[in-house]
Structures are given as C-alpha cells and as structure tokens.
C-alpha cells in the first residue's frame, strides 16, 4: 500500500532532518508485471548535511530523487521533508532560452510569491552568490555551459528551500569547469546552510563534495553501504585522501555490479 509524500515542519522549528525516507519502495509496470526499482530504503538527510548517492546505471538514483522532490509517489513507505518543498536541479540546465539569466531566476521568485518590486534585486543577489554578477541581462545562448549551470543553481536557490536535490548537474561539463563548480557548490552549501542530496556516477566527485556517501545496490536499489567522509574542506579531487577513499568505494561499486551480473 502506498503512503503519501509529505512536507512537514516549519523552518523556524528545530528540525531533526531535512529529508526522511522510511521503508520506501517503488515499482513500475512492465510487460511481465511490476518491476521493482527501489526496495525498502530508509535514509535520513540531516539539516545542513551534504549527501551523495552513488550506484550503477539503472539502480534507481534518479527515481529516488524524483520521489523526494514529490514528482512521483512511492509504492510503499513514506517520505517527509522539512523547510518547504525541495528544489530540484537537473543535469540539463532547463533554462528558458527566451528569458535572460535574471528573468529565469525571477520566474522562480514569482512562483514563490515574491513581490515584483523585490524580484530584480533578489535575482541579482543570487547571481552574485554564484559569481555571475553583471549577467542579469545575458541571454542563455550568450552563456557558457558552466555559466548556465550556475544560473540553474541560482534559480534553484531562488525557491528558498532548505533541501537542494541535484541530479548529476555537472556530468556534461568538461573537467576544469566541473572542478570550478565543485568549489562554488561547496562554498554556497556552507554559506547558505542548505542540505544537499546529490546524485552522481563519479566516485571522486561524490567523495570530493559529500559529508556522507550512500551506495545503492543494483536492481532493485537498496542501501548497500554508507561512508562518512571525514576529509576536511577545502578538498581537491586529486587529493590523496580523496583518492584513497574513492578506491575503496569503487571496489564496493564493482562488487555490486558483479553481483547484479550473476542475478
């Protein structure tokens, strides 16, 4: 029996979690009957915590993120978030090309109910936060890939949620741009105090960014193992400690893939 997606709490209250998944499962209809994608997942994301989700392709990482975002409902179990509806950032920037960078952000502010008189100033503040001051009037085609993702991040932050959901937002970028945006995301996360649930296939990216790495098993996705990342910030993707933990996690991931191959 499915249970309802719920938003709970007030940002003025002392929340014990930003997101709580309790025995969550998800099935989709298939030609041979229901296909179980996620199975009995229980996971908390603490206020201000940065958690990355890892797993092989098809293990249900994006499905889980969509469930937390409220875009779909679990087949079983419950999902609760605090501090307003989560903000979701995709791999593609999904900016409206007929709007400027600033107007893309203002649209999110308008949907949030911010008065027209204050939207431009807030959009410019958010562009400054992602180091795009002066880009308010730029059209999407005038922005590089990295700049578009910064605008998308500013738009997500404009929703004023305490939980940011990110579905491989840097996967399509070159290594140097991705490295720069890792720095920027870490800075913004620490300055804004938001919680982040970040999906990636890149083990080093997961270790470089997160306080905690969660590995999902392959088909159906279950929580296979978790790691607390005790490496101090600032971190670099080439740091020895990042590399060492990445090797350990990669071996576990390979093991999950091998086990799935024998199913």
Automatic annotation (TrEMBL):
The keyword Transport applies. It comes from the Bacteria. Transmembrane segments: none annotated. Gene3D superfamilies: P-loop containing nucleotide triphosphate hydrolases. The keyword tRNA processing does not apply. InterPro entries: AAA+_ATPase, ABC_transporter-like_ATP-bd, ABC_transporter-like_CS, ABC_transporter_ATP-bind, P-loop_NTPase. GO terms for molecular function: ATP binding. SUPFAM superfamilies: P-loop containing nucleoside triphosphate hydrolases. Keywords: ATP-binding, Nucleotide-binding, Transport. Residues 19-245 form the ABC transporter domain. Signal peptide: none annotated. PROSITE patterns: ABC_TRANSPORTER_1, ABC_TRANSPORTER_2. This is ABC transporter ATP-binding protein.
């Amino acid at each position: 029996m499915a249970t309802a997606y719920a938003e709970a709490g007030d940002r003025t209250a002392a929340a014990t979690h930003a997101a709580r998944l309790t025995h969550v499962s998800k099935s989709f209809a298939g030609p041979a009957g229901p296909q179980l994608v996620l199975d009995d997942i229980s996971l908390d994301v603490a206020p201000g915590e940065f958690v990355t989700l890892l797993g092989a392709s098809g293990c249900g990482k994006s499905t889980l993120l969509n469930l937390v975002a409220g875009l779909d409902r679990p087949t079983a179990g419950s999902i609760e978030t605090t501090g307003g509806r989560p903000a979701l950032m995709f791999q593609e920037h999904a900016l409206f090309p007929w709007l400027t960078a600033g107007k893309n952000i203002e649209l999110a502010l308008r949907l949030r109910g911010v008065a027209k008189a204050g939207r431009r100033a807030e959009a410019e503040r958010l562009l400054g936060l992602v180091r795009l001051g002066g880009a308010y009037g730029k059209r999407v085609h005038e922005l590089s890939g990295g700049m578009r993702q910064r605008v998308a991040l500013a738009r997500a932050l404009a929703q004023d949620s305490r939980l940011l959901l990110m579905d491989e937002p840097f996967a399509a970028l070159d290594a140097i741009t991705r490295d720069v945006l890792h720095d920027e995301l870490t800075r913004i996360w620490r300055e804004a105090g938001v919680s982040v649930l970040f999906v990636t296939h890149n083990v080093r990216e997961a270790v470089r960014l997160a306080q905690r790495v969660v590995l999902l098993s392959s088909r159906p996705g279950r929580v296979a193992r978790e790691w607390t990342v005790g490496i101090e910030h600032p971190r670099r993707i080439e740091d020895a400690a990042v590399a060492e933990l990445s090797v350990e996690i990669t071996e576990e991931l390979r093991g999950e893939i091998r086990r799935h191959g024998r199913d």
